[in-house]
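Hello again,

I reread your note about wanting to compare the complex against the isolated chains. To keep things tidy I'm splitting this into two emails, and this first one only covers the full assembly. Below are the input lines as submitted, including protein chains and any nucleic acid or small-molecule components. They are followed by the predicted structure of everything together. The single-chain runs will come separately.
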Amino acid sequence: MEKLIINGGRELAGEIKVHGAKNSVLPILASTLLIRGVSILHNVPRLTDVDASIKILEYLGAKVKREGDTLIVDAKEIVENRIPEEMMREMRSSIIFLGSLLSRTGEAYLCYPGGCDIGVRPIDLHISSLRRLGAMIYESGNCLCCRRNSLHGAKIILTFPSVGATENIIITSVLAKGKTTIINAAREPEISDLATFLNSCGAKIFGAGEGTVEIEGVESLHPSSHSIIPDRIVTATYMSAAALNAKELLIKDIRAQHLMPIMPVFMEMGCKLYLDANNLKIVSPKRLKRVRTIKTMPYPGFPTDCQSIVMAALTKARGTTIINESIFESRFKHISELNRFGADISVNDSVAIINGVKNLYGANVFCTDLRGGASLVIAALAAQGRSTIGNIHHISRGYEKIEENFAQIGADIKRIDDEREVTKNE
Ligand code: UD1
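Full-complex prediction:
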């Protein structure tokens, strides 16, 4: 099993580059099924979730080629309409293939994995919305069976602005007959990125990134190329690491406007942020300050994906901070691991109380989920002494070469393979 070994307490400095957004590239890859031709995607990170999506596309009949950061997806021929359970299991967000497969082939069969590491993750909004667009969906055991005669536009009011449901509706309705209106749509930047890609292929999506999105169905889409937006959660991860461990760090290839929901928190911690459109310099104080209560909310609120990441920085702040997690019910599993470093965090239902401590100390910990795993890396970089972080397959879902990137700015961090080490010693 792979592990990260970190000798903490090193000062970080220099510059670090942000890769493309996982949460953008996954729905965009699913949507390439709608295009009977070749889609070219730039700035695609090397992540295990991306590999899992590629595997699904190839299984369905697409040809996928990688050239550096560019993926070339040829979906001229799609021969399958069933996604095997093991492929669905590899990536929880594979439900995003439902709309594209249904639209492309007229039928879609997929077995969904159910609960996950951060909560139950129901898909009721996906199903009810697709039904409104004319899909016939029934569940058989753990599997979803979907058929359509024709898909038609509809007015869909989401009871919650679900990111995945908004994406599935957009993908399903671009080739449906007539107009679809989504009320209370998710406004995350990744929704706008999906719409930008599909519009470049000839779709007619208006208002993506706002609460009401309108989609005029078109007859067909044509091939196009697109560059994936930078990952705002990875940017926040580097910001938190810098807040704790760097006097000054330059973070390159960011999208300033996407950071608006998190910038006030870093400023309240005492960090100074210098921004232009694509770069961010963060200058950190000697000791961070507590911040007023943070509540995770749909965009443009404070992102749930940044909750654990910012919590790691706050473990060493002066004073007490309260974080209220309002999006996912089981997203505090990293806290017991953060406490192993000497952090003082307690939990009451959906509220975490973080009492800042002066020092963190090296510990042996395990990732519980993707962003929780990133919070452990941030804490270990700030902890005195040696830490080991296990279960890092979670981190590989969303961070490309995290150890190389942090090592390049001065961290003492390496990835080792336990089993290989054992063999070497035998
Ligand atoms: C996406 C992101 C994830 C992020 C989350 C919220 C991807 C691949 N993942 O996940 O990183 O943490 O947005 O910003 O983009 N819900 C329902 N019924 C549904 C769908 C969702 O009740 O049919 C609930 C969920 O249980 C959760 C909330 O809505 O409580 C938010 O989920 P959603 O916005 O759908 O998140 P995802 O698209 O799964």
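For quick reference: The mean pLDDT is 94.

B.
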